Predict the structure.
Amino acid sequence: MTSQKLELGKANLVVFSEILTELAKEDKNILAVTSDSRGSGKLGSYAEELPEQIVEVGIAEQNLVGVSAGLASAGKSVFAVSPGCFLTARSLEQVKNDVAYSKQPVTLVGISAGVSYGALGSTHHSIHDVAVLRAINNINVVIPADNFETREAIIAAAKSETPIYLKFGKKAMPHLPRVTKAFKIGKASTICEGSDVAIIACGETVAPAYEAAQLLQEKGISAEVISMHTVKPLDKEAVLNSAKKCKCVITVEEHSVNGGLGEAVASLLMTEKVYKPFKSVGIPDEETVAGSQVEIFNHYGISAEGLAGVAEKLL
């Protein structure tokens, strides 16, 4: 792996808005439904340009999902936009029954997700969303790492006949290098190849995972970084191939260590009898500290230095 400094791009939410606007201009059946969240969802310009293709339900997340399911049943391609913490908690029953069980192809867009609300604390953190949605049949969970994956995920979601949950944070994301040039829901992307440690990450944790790989390279340790942008369905082949060729496996996620990417990967490895030293890095089962996203990441070791240290210990 050649060391390189990452160029900073836009916030994934900004890219989401730009691509959705492009698609909606071409297809009048595309609708955005918001719960007083067009501002935080970066949909202000979308609403100005396409006022007949946005529905505002107010601060009523359960109604948001119900209305979105109804519109989808009438043939609309619906993007339901709301903070991830509320979308997957307050309206979980509607997600389960109106969308997933009823097979309505709604794209649920969880904005300001993970710990990106920072100092607002645990009430506004969505570190449970992957766990609860992994337990619900007929919904895919996609967490793009950078602007490229965001663009491709939105394009794919607009064509999908299966419900999707998309998870976005707030901050500008670096453009990641990648070995895998194409994007497909359900197929992981290889960011860089390695043979000593496999780091499997998703969303905004992929960047620090790649930076950790660069630090490890300076010490003669070869790290492979996988962007597992689709947590459900999990790309089993990518996980097994990477784990089998490396000496240890680390998973990284902006989510509780309970029920998320780490447990999905661990379960697969145990089931397939791939026994390697393993560590799941995420938010532990404790009262989450308050602070900025960067401060919270650093506190829990979701950083280049923290992940590199975990790799060295496992090796």
